[in-house]
Design a protein that fits this description.
This is Molecular chaperone DnaJ. The protein is an all-beta fold. Helices cover 0% and strands 42% of the residues. The mean pLDDT is 87. Bound molecules: zinc ion (ZN). Zinc ion (ZN) is lined by residues 13, 15-16, 20, 42, 44-45, 49.
Length: 55
């Protein structure tokens, strides 16, 4: 098969701005008291920083 390999078309992830990480509020205790912010993995791109453009 002489099929061209298509370039992976991706677009930068918006929530994390391509970093793959997003700041998230850390909550503890039963009352979910916010104690600060922590960097967590971006759930939109799962840490990849970019998402497939065809999705
Ligand atoms: Zn992301």
């Amino acid at each position: 098969m002489a099929r061209k390999t298509t370039k992976p078309r991706t677009t930068p992830c918006e929530p994390c701005k391509g970093t793959g990480e997003v700041p998230r509020t850390v909550r503890v205790g039963r009352r979910h008291r916010p104690v600060g912010q922590q960097v967590g993995i971006c759930l939109n791109c799962l840490g990849a920083g970019e998402i497939p453009a065809d999705h």
